Amino acid sequence: MGWMAETAERRADPRVLWPDVRSIVMLGLNYGPDADPRGLQARKDRGAISVYARNRDYHDIIKGKLKLLAGRLAARTGAEVKVFVDTAPVMEKPLAEAAGLGWQGKHTNLVSREFGSWLFLGAIFTALELPLDAPERDHCGSCRACLDACPTQAIPAPYRLDARRCISYLTIEHAGPIPAAFRAAMGNRIYGCDDCLAACPWNKFAQAASEMKLKSRPELEAPRLADLAALDDSGFRALFAGSPIKRIGRDRFVRNVLIAIGNSADAALLPSVLALLDDPAPIVRGAAVWAVSRLDPTEWAAQKTARHASEPDPETRKEWVA
How many CA atoms does the CB half-sphere of 122 hold within 13 Å? Predict the structure, then answer.
């Protein structure tokens, strides 16, 4: 873990969050994987979960470390402190760049010469006046590896991200059906996407994470799509207890799994899909319709005859005529 200091005046005024802040200490925690996560894309019957989400929720891990360090700082100096990890509108990436932890790469994420693209960020606000650290300069040069690696062309130009096309946004934040234009490009990515991060040449200097709570749980490294499709709400909660995946809920997660199954070209997964055509959740039924159409068009046509007219959800009905 590295840390640097940054005064309140250097970026958007953080005194809106806390009027007494005088300095911001930025910290980074390495979560580098043991291997390139893109290798999992060849295993079509398995789901690809973003590296950061394969174990405990990083918010909890980092917040605990920040509170420990902030408490020591407060005890030694008497200055008040507050900590933030994606819990407030803190401009973490530009602050980390200004504090010397790294620079914002062309994929818009922070890049470190020591840890590549695999860094979680956190901030300690303090009422203590601290000296400035030297900012890091951009070392991307003419490289465009991250732009070229994006499956959905969500990085239309260096340092610009179109979230509407980003697989991480679509699989995590987007609540409705996955737009048809991006389904095939999702492949077997069922929660997040690491492609632009993994493509960064600076990762050749990266090390695997040493924090054990960030090491991948074996059952989440390459989970079977058939097993994930069979999850009900209680099963989903049990499997992802303590995980950031839990917050998107079972329905949205199974929607993602069904898109991956539709991309698998594995006819053995068809029974898993057919079982979800009667799911109570419309976004699950809609994704199941699409998956059937991809795995077995003849079966899709037969199911359409039986189900289209009686489908109550308008978005799911559209899947039957797409």
Answer: 25
